[in-house]
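User: Watch each token:
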Amino acid sequence: QVQLAESGGGLVQAGGSLRLSCRASGSIFSINAAGWYRQAPGKQRELVADIISGGSTNYADSVKGRFTIARDNAKNTVYLQMNSLKPEDTAVYYCNVELVTYAYTREQYWGQGTQVTVSS
């Protein structure tokens, strides 16, 4: 069994910064890929950024140059550093992790979501 614990959301003024964390715990052999998604009210969930096992990253155009995704393999933790936040970044942010368990099964998990609110 694997659990994801997200933290770091909150209320910040436009131009401010936040860092989200997503820690995976349980029967984890390796994390293949991880990503951050967000869902604003009335909108579909969208990919914000992802990172694969080799370290390659991918960002939505709307966050390029402002957000940075990173991972700490030793801690099974993925981070999203968000700088120069804008009101349109307001959403619930979810982490998603694709991993291999010690039973050598490939599984995917979602975090519980953390609210990010950017005031103008």
Q: What stands out?
A: The mean pLDDT is 96. DSSP finds no helices and eleven strands in the chain.
